[in-house]
Design a protein that fits this description.
The complex is a heterodimer of chains A (233) and B (202).
Chain A lengths: L4 H8 L5 H13 L1 H17 L28 H25 L3 H8 L16 H36 L2 H56 L11
Chain B lengths: L4 H9 L3 H23 L2 H17 L10 H20 L13 H5 L9 H19 L3 H11 L5 H8 L3 H37 L1
Helix pairs in contact in B: 1-2, 2-3, 2-4, 3-4, 4-8, 6-9, 7-9, 8-9
Classes of the chains: A mainly alpha (233), B mainly alpha (202).
């Protein structure tokens, strides 16, 4: 046993089987050299505990994931709310105006039809210049057609008036027609201006959407671990 | 609930930086202690700690759990320390205890019950151990540090140092025996010095 250091070390650190432990203890009972050796090694282990390590602050700067900023966050919430309100009010005003200026019968067919649900997803919001032109053309065509109808109706009314009423009455009717036409032309100019401003806003939104997509793609690249400046190897 | 090292390693490997930060918080102190005791200087140990964790982060994907995460970290740290000493061409530095200032030292007592005399003796023993350990061959020093201060098993040390189990036990036995002789000699010298000092002053 005296030349078997492995058993003594296993016993010293209590990393031995019960049989090995019993064998070492039996030997230590008989061999004073090994008993002194184990005692001395235990003392050294006790002395080793005195070796201090100085207190220190953490030397590690924790990893922080780069903050992902959504492009639309650059716009204040109040501005987004104001824009949404503006669009809503403009839409409601346009709808009310069209109800007042066009006979309800013109929309009868449309009103009774059940509108198909439209689901807009970011990918489907792709308004092109062609779509805007078509919309403008459709509005203008409808406005012109309505104006022609009203002029024809007024002309027919004027014919009847000239046949059945005095000249004074017919002059009053003509003034009334002129007033109505002026009001209608003013409304038409406003519609065209509104259409053009809508055109600009939609183009702005389309441009903003493209920028958001580009920024989102850039942020995804930034999130890759390789961008921390050290790569796994 | 506290997550295990293995769970944190899995999350960190999947890209969760916070999990890796938690591993660092958990193991920074032992890694610093190993580096400090190996190199003997605070600044060097701090540099090694940082480099060790950076290397661990870079190598996470290659760490397949064949060993404990802590053992893997210890191995990285020891390799860095070895490189460091070879580059500097030097042995571990031994920091001698500073001048004895009873008031200043009172703050360093392990417990309020520890007297200043005990504190002085503990500091002297700390320096004596550091000196004796610095003179050991690198393999014996590493085995003793991993066993005594980090509680690794014989098998874990053997795996880490790439040597047979019996070699680990032999290195421990030889290292402890050398330390025992040196510390006993040191204590004898210290006692003689104190006696001479007491006799000259009386």
């Amino acid at each position: 046993m005296c030349d078997q250091r492995e058993q003594l070390i296993g016993y010293l650190y209590d990393e031995c089987t019960p049989d090995e432990r019993r064998a070492v203890e039996a030997h230590l009972g008989e061999c004073h050299v090994c008993r002194a050796e184990v005692g001395g090694l235990r003392d050294v282990r006790q002395d080793l505990l005195a070796w201090d390590v100085p207190a220190h602050e953490s030397v590690w700067r924790p990893f922080v994931a780069p903050r992902v900023t959504n492009p639309w966050r650059a716009m204040p919430a109040w501005a987004m709310a104001a824009a949404a309100t503006l669009v809503f009010v403009a839409g409601a005003a346009g709808g009310a105006a069209s109800r007042l200026l066009w006979p309800a019968s013109a929309f009868g067919q449309v009103a009774t039809a059940t509108p198909a649900p439209v689901v807009l997803t970011p990918a489907s919001v792709t308004v092109g210049q062609q779509d805007l032109n078509n919309l403008k053309l459709a509005i203008l065509t409808q406005v012109r057609a309505e104006m022609d109808q009203r002029v024809m109706a007024l002309a027919a009314s004027h014919d009847r008036t000239t046949k059945t009423a005095a000249d004074g009455v017919s002059q009053a009717a003509l003034r009334d027609v002129a007033t109505r036409l002026t009001a209608f032309e003013n409304w038409q100019r406003k519609q065209i201006a509104f259409s053009m401003s809508l055109d600009n806003k939609v183009a702005g939104i389309v441009s903003r959407y493209s920028a958001m997509n580009a920024s989102l793609a850039a942020n995804r690249q930034v999130l890759q671990p390789a961008s921390y400046g050290f790569e796994a190897r | 609930m506290t997550r295990t090292d293995e769970e944190l390693v899995a999350s960190a490997t999947a890209g969760d930086l916070d999990s890796f930060n938690q591993l660092v918080v958990r193991w920074e102190r032992p890694i610093y202690a190993l580096a400090y005791r190996t190199l003997g200087r605070d600044e060097d140990a701090r540099d090694v700690v940082q480099e060790a964790f950076l290397r661990a982060y870079r190598g996470l994907k290659g760490f397949k759990g064949q060993a404990k995460f802590s053992s893997w970290l210890y191995r990285i740290t020891l390799n860095l320390c070895r490189d460091w000493m070879r580059r500097e061409r030097r042995a571990p530095i031994v920091t001698l205890p500073e001048g004895v200032d009873p008031i200043e030292m009172a703050d360093d007592r392990a417990s309020p019950a520890e007297s200043v005399e005990d504190l002085v003796a503990r500091r002297e023993m700390s320096a004596a151990v550091a000196r004796a350990m610095a003179e050991l061959p690198e393999e014996q020093r590493a085995a003793i540090m991993l066993k005594e201060y980090h509680g690794l098993t014989f098998q874990e040390i053997a795996d880490m140092l790439n040597c047979p189990l019996s070699t680990v036990k032999t290195r421990l036995y030889q290292g402890l025996s050398v330390l025992r002789r040196r510390l006993e000699r040191q204590q004898t010298q210290d006692a003689a010095l104190r006696r001479a000092s007491w006799e000259s002053s009386s």
